[in-house]
Amino acid sequence: MADVDSPIEAARGAIGVTTGPIRGSRKIHVAVPGNPKVQVAMRAIDLEPGCGEPPLNVYDTSGPYTDPTVRIDINAGLAPLRREWIMARGDVEAYDAREIRPEDNGQLGPDRSGGVQPFPNVVKRPLRAKPGANVSQMHYARRGIITPEMEYVATRENLGREMLREYHRDGESFGAAIPDYVTPEFVRDEVARGRAIIPNNINHPESEPMAIGRNFLVKINANIGNSAVASNVATEVDKLVWSIRWGADTVMDLSTGRNIHDTREWIIRNSPVPIGTVPIYQALEKVGGIAEDLTWEIFRDTLIEQAEQGVDYFTIHAGVRLPYVPLTAKRVTGIVSRGGSIMAKWCLAHHKESFLYERFDEITEIMKSYDIAYSLGDGLRPGSIADANDEAQFAELYTLGELTKRAWAQDVQVMIEGPGHVPMHKIKENMDKQLEACGEAPFYTLGPLTTDIAPGYDHITSGIGAAMIGWYGTAMLCYVTPKEHLGLPDRDDVKVGVVTYKLAAHAADLAKGHPAAKMRDDALSRARFEFRWRDQFNLSLDPDTAEKYHDQTLPAEGAKTAHFCSMCGPKFCSMKITQEVRDFARLQNQGSEGFIATEEAEAGMAKMSNVYEETGRELYMGAGDREHN
Amino acid sequence: MADVDSPIEAARGAIGVTTGPIRGSRKIHVAVPGNPKVQVAMRAIDLEPGCGEPPLNVYDTSGPYTDPTVRIDINAGLAPLRREWIMARGDVEAYDAREIRPEDNGQLGPDRSGGVQPFPNVVKRPLRAKPGANVSQMHYARRGIITPEMEYVATRENLGREMLREYHRDGESFGAAIPDYVTPEFVRDEVARGRAIIPNNINHPESEPMAIGRNFLVKINANIGNSAVASNVATEVDKLVWSIRWGADTVMDLSTGRNIHDTREWIIRNSPVPIGTVPIYQALEKVGGIAEDLTWEIFRDTLIEQAEQGVDYFTIHAGVRLPYVPLTAKRVTGIVSRGGSIMAKWCLAHHKESFLYERFDEITEIMKSYDIAYSLGDGLRPGSIADANDEAQFAELYTLGELTKRAWAQDVQVMIEGPGHVPMHKIKENMDKQLEACGEAPFYTLGPLTTDIAPGYDHITSGIGAAMIGWYGTAMLCYVTPKEHLGLPDRDDVKVGVVTYKLAAHAADLAKGHPAAKMRDDALSRARFEFRWRDQFNLSLDPDTAEKYHDQTLPAEGAKTAHFCSMCGPKFCSMKITQEVRDFARLQNQGSEGFIATEEAEAGMAKMSNVYEETGRELYMGAGDREHN
């Protein structure tokens, strides 16, 4: 794997990324039933030959980077997987791209130094909808059209679900409608009614279609992006590839400062996952950071600029209305959303209603010409436990609900961003209000953080809230890294944040009773119970770390096949006792049910005693869960 | 701090521990109202002089190790804080200790090599209750006696709660009865009715009294202990001091293999927190690891041995009854509790009911002579998501409820151990059944882990479940480290496990609406909002890590006082905008409430516009939550 070299190369200014299969698994492509031209990427985890279990297929966000048969060239970008599908619909036209200006890369900003090399392979003639056309997946869905994107999603979400013949539901889904089996028609219907979105700009054909919705697997987003203070394009592309390797379903480029345009081009051209941005950040750079100098024209121009590059969803803080701004005056932490504070500042400076709110339908016109999804930003979200669920937050939420309906009126896809800091007892109210206010549009939440007292561990304070709100119905969880509130995440922080959120999303899927979720837990538990250490590592979210931790106590290769663990040592193993229990329960004819220590049972046990003396005594025993007592 | 040297010293075989104040705070002692001889240790965090806020007092488990005025000598042990209180009650007698035998240190075990030096300062004449006496805190409580231990707990739990004049409750406590202010009488009443325990063996006078109960702050336990495979006494004492430094309220010594007796002596003599053990582990060593060779006599002798050393609570797996064992036969992971599997093995081998169950009242006789609390073990807890909430688990739980009442009949304190692996939707059922079956005896849960697929991150998969079950009513959370299922935790793992569980316990206190909990979140949020970086670090659970992470992006000392953060850089800061909002809301006479963009408002705003042009324009702005968009 280039993994090890990557940081060094990045330091040199070259762009090195991590490639090669994830340990213990291989890339596979599953054909869509009835449409073999659409091949869905997955990851197959092979188990020990002896165990008699089939390979486990898991959801794979890592794209071609983990496919040894694909040659990766960051300077060329990824292959345009979806281009044929897009062109085949005959509703788009190529046109001369808007010209790139110095201010697109922040040259009006305070720092005029530096600059990254432009992406060598820029598309000069991007696509847009033909006059009068609407190229959004929602528009197709509402006209009854099942697109290849929808077919891809259906196969991708099913994983090995057809293996679950005798699966019976076990979960509490709080009103979600998760099907036993996902059909392309189900995907179409969910997109048509706005309960799910498939964010994929027609100018980002490199992306592998994925769905964000309460009735699909819970997704996670990773934030990257350079800032005025630190980082460069090489490390950002490396972080992109690194974050999708570990499971990021979408990535947001939150770059600020200079080189915003070029950095984004490098990221999109090399991304197999949807890319989201907050256009107001770049618009602000274009006016030298003076919020009150922002104008609709500059903002609109920025939307076109990013639409042509292929951004898949835009965070638009159109719910930060002038009347709501003073509602934050009594807060402990005021307005902590960057986009929210920019718009609040603009509203105060001009004492006018937000141009994002007033021009919303014009923005929607642009969205539908490129199939960009809205991520309606929660600019007034609470920045502390003290401010959670307050008047300002919910006033904005209900406005987002109103805007959702306006976007849907033009068949444009929408998701809603959710709160940052919320104590556990106030989390469900957020989910319930969002479902009611926004007509079941997908909820996309940050955390939420369940306490403010653990900076340095906010991936965990927020992972707790993320798992809970994911269970309640959130469709996508925006990750938080250990550096939250303290600094910019490095690639180690990105990995910890992604894996933490992946496990939170999975815990949510389990609790919702998602048919495909429990298969992996059960496979890993069987491997653990049978001391198939390799399988246990390979089935985990992070095989590298699992094996490393194991080896810190028991380095020997033999220990990986040993029938004991370091918690108990070679002498003890509770797994052993269970085999004895099973033999006992079997031999004693009535099986485990209805076993009571009755007279009859006593008799049966006396008989068993001899059997045991002969067979069982030499079996050593103990416990595999040593730290648990 | 000796911190840095400690591991080296430990490697040398010497016993080095981390001493010195926790960064940014100082040890204080608060006198119990009306009983100034009882001085309760706390930690005071001083804030920046300019901010006009008083120091924040926080709960402190670290004992004398963080008190610069105390000279620490591991070879001498800690001062016997409680000895006077114990003697003053006049119901104990000193007697000649049971003689130490080779098998006490596992010399009958497989490995006869090695050995640690015995603790130099062993008490030759331990204490026990005089004939006919009962020295349990529950016994005193039921006779209406308020002990110094109860007074200590009351002051310790209140923290700065008297500061909360205008505090109004905000939380969902699921039927807990948390008072606004904790009085010694409240503590007595909770202990009397069995809803809380104060575990403190009369032979462990070094311990600082603490309470475990649903109506007190949620506590956490850290497990340490050497094993047949790894570690030595120096590292275990170091781990003890290290774990309480970061917040462990109790510590369990789960040592196995050789040197069990001597290791435990070193740990207890140097521990200011209650120490728990699983006596069956040592009893098993005494019979060479052959479970079926265990006898009541050997087990009873082990209880006396450990009682005389001062163990504060015993995990007793008396609920693993013969009839329940076959109920585990169909499980994916069978029996994963070590103590549970030992007893299951014994029951199968002899086809007899467990001697722990049959001799329970005799065990209770011993407990009340030393004031040792029961931690009734969940030997049949699930070891995987697949086995959660099954028949075997709940059959045992109801038996633990029956045993609780038998222990209470002799005024012996009890807590109940809870499950290890449970998906989120099945967690609350565990809490509800425990409250009902065990008459509100404190619940002491491991995790629970909410998914099985993240070995290497099980402190997080379990931290999620821990926060939730703590909210629902669990009194103490047993930590899980990143090494769970993979290896033995080193001191870094111990710290991560403790801090993770500390934040989970705090999130639970917040959600329950505990009056003392939110003060710290609010203080930290104000510090964050006002860019008091030092205060933000010092108020956090782990100031060292918070500052380290901050410095990785902005090392300069100046950056710690700068009014911006690395997420946004010097140009942007959303905190700034809020001051403008406040000025605006103030100047505009109607304040934030009732502000609507009406004609009148528009007029007022027009007037404001000029004010703003003069005052506000030069204020730069942006957002402090850059990673959040």
UniProtKB/TrEMBL annotation, chains A, B:
Any GO MF annotation of the entry: phosphomethylpyrimidine synthase activity
InterPro entries in the cross-refs: ThiC, ThiC-associated_dom, ThiC/Bza_core_dom, ThiC/BzaA/B
Record's keyword terms, sorted: 4Fe-4S, Iron, Iron-sulfur, Lyase, Metal-binding, S-adenosyl-L-methionine, Thiamine biosynthesis, Zinc
Highest taxon above the source species: Bacteria
ThiC-associated domain mapped to chain residues: 22-93
Cofactor: [4Fe-4S] cluster
Region entry Disordered, spans: 102-122
Catalytic activity line of the entry: 5-amino-1-(5-phospho-beta-D-ribosyl)imidazole + S-adenosyl-L-methionine = 4-amino-2-methyl-5-(phosphooxymethyl)pyrimidine + CO + 5'-deoxyadenosine + formate + L-methionine + 3 H(+)
KW Iron-sulfur (keyword) present: yes
Gene3D superfamilies, per the entry: 6.10.250.620, Radical SAM ThiC family, central domain (3.20.20.540)
EC number: 4.1.99.17
Binding site for Zn(2+): 421, 485
Protein residues bound to substrate: 223, 252, 281, 317, 337-339, 378-381, 417, 444
Cofactor info, note text: Binds 1 [4Fe-4S] cluster per subunit. The cluster is coordinated with 3 cysteines and an exchangeable S-adenosyl-L-methionine.
Pathway(s) per entry: Cofactor biosynthesis; thiamine diphosphate biosynthesis
Residues that coordinate or bind [4Fe-4S] cluster: 565, 568, 573
Broad EC category: lyase
Family to which the UniProt record says this protein belongs: Belongs to the ThiC family.
Summary of subunit composition and partner proteins: Homodimer.
UniProt xrefs under NCBIfam families: PRK09284.1, PRK13352.1, thiC
PANTHER family for the chain: PHOSPHOMETHYLPYRIMIDINE SYNTHASE, CHLOROPLASTIC, THIAMINE BIOSYNTHESIS PROTEIN THIC
Role this protein plays: Catalyzes the synthesis of the hydroxymethylpyrimidine phosphate (HMP-P) moiety of thiamine from aminoimidazole ribotide (AIR) in a radical S-adenosyl-L-methionine (SAM)-dependent reaction.
Name under which the protein is recorded: Phosphomethylpyrimidine synthase
